[in-house]
Amino acid sequence: MKRQMSALTTAAFLAMAGVLVSGTNVQASARCSNVTLHGRYSFRATGTAFGNPFANVGVFHFDGNGHVNGFATVKVDDVVFQTVIDGTYSVTPDCFMQTSFNEGNGIIDTDDNAIFEDGNGFYILNTNSVALVVSGEARRQTLDLDRLDR
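Request: output the structure for the sequence above.
Response:
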C-alpha cells in the first residue's frame, strides 16, 4: 500500500512538473493579488464524494478584496440540488489562491487554486476532506453588451 501511494505521489508530481515545464499558462513568476480575481467566473468540477460520483457547475463572483459568493448546481450520485456560495479567498504573489466556503451546515470547504492567463481562469482542487476528491476549472465570464442590444 505504501509503495502504491509513493508511486501515485511521484506520478502526480511528475505530471504537474511536466505541465509547468511545457509552458502552460500557470503564472509561476507573475505578480498576483486578490485584485487579480474580480468579476464573475463560470466553473465546473467533478470527482467523488464519499465514493459516489460528484459534479457541479456554477458561478463565482470575486470582489477583488478577498470575498467570493455565487451559486452552484450540485449532483452527488443521483441527488441534484442547488446551493449558495459564500466565502473568502487569498491570492499569493505567485498566483496561487486558497478559498474557504461556509457550506451552511457547519462544514467549511477549502480549495487550493492555480491562477492562469492573468486572472482569466484558475484550476481548482478540493483540499479539506478525504471523502471528497474534486477538481475543476473556472473561467472569467465575458459578456459583449453591444452584441446583446442587436
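The beta strands are 38-49, 52-63, 67-76, 79-91, 96-102, 108-116, 121-126, 132-140.
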